[in-house]
Design a protein that fits this description.
single chain, 269 residues, alpha+beta, 434 Repressor (Amino-terminal Domain), Jelly Rolls, 3 domains, 5-stranded antiparallel sheet, 3-stranded antiparallel sheet, 9 helices, 10 strands, 32% helix, DNA-binding, DNA-binding transcription factor activity, DNA-binding transcriptional MerR regulator
């Protein structure tokens, strides 16, 4: 193992440390009990916290006789660690979603089924604030009668009148390759964002909400689809204005970053 970063265990190593078989680890992953990381070549990698979680899963299964759903709920009630990810700004979204689910008296399985995602995906999102596309994030916000912007922590007590270039606050990066930066803080009549999209980054599905929105491409190229049948290929300097109640999806068609100004009013996204 490298001394230059956190320890990562392969499947066989993690299984040995947890006292179970490698096939059991794969089964627990399919049941949403643990979500290991991946190496650049796609191989599973388990952190020290993952191994500790595996040991707790084994204990709940053997000593308490709990089924997978009950084990997930029991683990959720423990102090979260998630390999140190649940610290700082990136953890806020996941904690908010978990708090909203608890307030609604729902289990992971219930919400995941209602939204149309797997319980393991929802569990990962609540623990790490990562792992879903914008479409799923919007569906969850709508489910809990809130907005993506509020979930992402836009409400701030201190509202600067001027935000200098490069000093934008950034949303938790729920979707790899999608960075959303705040161009205006506080409770406003508009959501004003700067989107930075890596090559291939996309909404991963169509969504809609109340209001109207405006986008202006600063660099790169964006494909936006309205109502599944209207395609817009937007390049640098192009703008588009549309009603937010129309289903919309998007993706970066450029082989480099695409950067755009995106405004929603009222702040319903």
């Amino acid at each position: 193992m490298s001394d230059n970063g956190p320890v990562r265990y392969k499947v066989a190593e993690a299984a040995r440390l947890a006292g179970v078989s490698a096939s059991t680890l794969r089964l627990w992953e399919s049941q949403g009990l643990v979500v290991p990381g991946r190496s650049e070549t796609g191989h599973r990698q388990y952190s020290a916290d993952d191994v500790a979680r595996l040991k707790r899963i084994s204990w709940y299964r053997v000593e308490r006789g709990l089924n997978p759903a009950a084990i997930r709920e029991a683990l959720e009630g423990e102090e979260p660690s998630a390999d140190g990810v649940e610290t700082g700004q990136g953890s806020g979204l996941g904690r908010k979603l978990r708090s909203l689910r608890h307030a609604a008296g729902k289990t992971l399985d219930q919400v995941a089924s209602d939204i149309g995602i797997t319980a393991s995906t929802l569990s990962t999102l609540e623990r790490t604030s990562q792992g879903v596309g914008f479409k799923t994030l919007h569906d969850l916000a709508e489910y809990y009668a809130t907005t993506v912007s509020r979930l992402s922590g836009e409400e701030s007590e201190e509202v600067p009148a001027v935000i200098r270039a490069g000093e934008w606050r950034t949303w938790p990066e729920t979707t790899p390759g999608v960075m959303v930066q705040l161009l205006a803080e506080g409770s406003r009549m508009m959501d004003c964002h700067r989107f930075v999209l890596a090559p291939g980054a996309a909404s991963e599905g169509a969504y809609r909400h109340e209001g109207e929105e405006f986008m202006h491409v600063l660099s790169g190229r964006l494909e936006l689809v309205l109502d599944s049948d209207q395609f817009f290929d937007l390049g640098p300097g192009d703008s588009l204005y549309f009603e937010s109640c129309r289903y919309h999806s998007w993706r970066n068609r450029h082989d480099g970053e695409t950067v755009l100004l995106w405004i929603n009013t009222p702040p319903t996204f």
